[in-house]
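Example 3.2
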Amino acid sequence: MQEVTILEGSYRGTEVHNQTFELVSAPKNGARGWFVTVRPNAEVGGDKVKIRVQIPNEECVLAPEGALKQTKTSIAVKEVIEETDEEVMARIADRFEILEEMTAASIDGKVRGMIVVGPPGVGKSYGVIRQLEKAHLFEQIANKAPKYDIVKGAMTPIGLYIKLYDNKDANQVVVFDDCDTVLMDDLSLNLLKAALDSGKKRKLCWNADSNALRANGIPDNFDFKGSVIFITNIQFDHIRSKKLQDHLKALQSRCHYLDLTMNTMRDRVLRIQQIHNTGELFSHYHFKNDEGDKIVEYMIANQDRLREVSLRMAVKIADLIQVTPKWERLAEMTVMKNSF
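Structure, written as tokens:
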């Protein structure tokens, strides 16, 4: 079944933004305005068989391959050539290999800016952090401060300016992991654009009085010579706001943009299988039998009922196995969508 992304809409008072669903029927203009009929996902719709999501217009519904085009009688969806499971896993593995290569180049200062896009819980951060730790192993052994910084969560504009200053020197790397608030603030976006600029000299300025800068002895301008890796779940191509689109296009033009191309449920399931096949997914659990296989099989069988299909979910279920041999009972209550 065709998967689509709803950029903007609502279902029974719940806002829907940049969420993926399985398409049941094309967008239609009814008595209450435009709507699209889809299968529920992990966040919206509960145990319903299908739901109607109200949307401003038909352009708010995108297929992973591009915008769905409205015709008089139907929606024309770009034909997709079906990949085998092996081809999907090879494609995904190639993207993650490129991610690690680009991270290594960031450490060397050859790549000064990179944006990494992909769904939550698929290991975007893992490959980046592994390369950073590998490159700075000797500093860790010598108890020296590493030349990289990993920032998670909300970030104010002044906080972003200070963090970039702290990592301003050549061969320093600052990783912003799911700091999506930066993308929603004009001042933060302008600072990020300056840090990611492709010019030989990147000068950052704070043109306002700031007690925080004075207290930390930070100047109101400095040359940024480090590298930035920005990791996000937001698909830039699916943003509807024209103002934000312009900012995001400017970011893309300044740095490398790596989309991990994991747009479907099948991609995510095969990614979990792929990591399990390497032996890394459950390595620290020291399972004695085939518990790891059982977890992956359980997730594949229940992919439509799980709250999230991700590597994090696999680890959650592995934790339950440590609690009791009857872990399926706990999983039914804790990781599944409500069935009532």
